[in-house]
């Protein structure tokens, strides 16, 4: 009887004891560089240019430049848009009133607001990715109605989306803008900028035809080059090229620039000094939770790289992903659409780490010159705390995703070979997403005195899950001892959203609460710095990484 009781007890123990998870093995070889750690992530953008000069906008821009080892490029819509009848800047809407015409139809230029925006960038050592658009009211071929009312569920594609009524005046506007910029900032500075014409001309942002867009581009490029022959211009910043329509628009535009007749000069060809396109994911609600779709965003990148490589003349041309995001509507709050509810928490940060690493992988695979990937995310004024916009900060408090960019900012030099037991590649995610299991993986870099490893635990489904045990081995160090610092983004670290919820989710925040939230929004260490001995050039670290968490391990000597 005692033996039966003992056997029953042992069987019960076996039944209730949790299964021991096998650690995910991640191996980094510091002696095997695989390519440059290009900081293509140091590009940011937004629709609402007037937020640039607000206190929170300036604060965020300062933080973005401080975290980056290179000058940050900033792309903003509406730099030529007129105010029209609008009461002020709004979601997806801004203006500068740079161009008007007097009673005789003579152009009147006013650069005060444009200058205040560009001054804000230049003061911080940032660079504009200068978007030539949208159409000023007095130059629009269909000016009425002009101001859109999107945030009130009204019309968006109004007079600012139309071609110019006079292409010579359009060219002169661009010439005067570039000339003024050189007079104000100096030619050396202005030639370090990037220029483009319009945004997403293949959808409602452009109410003209394809040929009218090419004509608008040609005249703008001619005006820019007349003022500044050394300035760099490119485009067309079309939408997701996984769509056959967008892919065709992109390739037809390239054909026009390479071999078509220039509308402005009558000659063959138009300046095209970089290729711009956009890449977006597509979240949805599945069984009551948010499911991301990184695969379609990576498919956009893949197809655009294939498009560029199909033109032999474009070998090694710079490429800019002009908007590179988990989905397509930064100004849509989670209240407006629940599928955007991932943005406040750690799903946004782990998605960013995982997707950017795969863009590096595709860059290597297609051997392209990726110059930049613009995160279309900034900050929104006069909105509730943590309203679920695609932004980097709320009321001047940094959200978890911004700390992933702080991690990337610590990586430079050469990317290193990474082997993982998980093994997901970009092509796997394009084909199947991250659905069957977690994507526990890493990207690593080496500079003369450090090795940095970013590790993430990502899944497309925003549901609770177990932490993943990680065994991180770094070999090829050639040192006897290193200092180890371990940073973390998860529910307990570098997370102002969880800190705000712990306060009860207030919309009125006291001064002391604000300071606490500011501190919670900074990148935090998981453990105090330690010194670790190296044996045979190799060291191993073990830790648990929560679902949607991101760790950053920095070894220095």
TrEMBL record:
SUPFAM superfamilies: (Trans)glycosidases, Glycosyl hydrolase domain. Residues 25-522 form the Glycosyl hydrolases family 39 N-terminal catalytic domain. GO terms for molecular function: hydrolase activity, hydrolyzing O-glycosyl compounds. Residues 1-19 form the signal peptide. GO terms for biological process: carbohydrate metabolic process. The active site is at 200 (proton donor). Gene3D superfamilies: Glycosidases (3.20.20.80), Glycosyl hydrolase domain, family 39 (2.60.40.1500). This is Glycoside hydrolase family 39. It comes from Fibrella aestuarina BUZ 2.
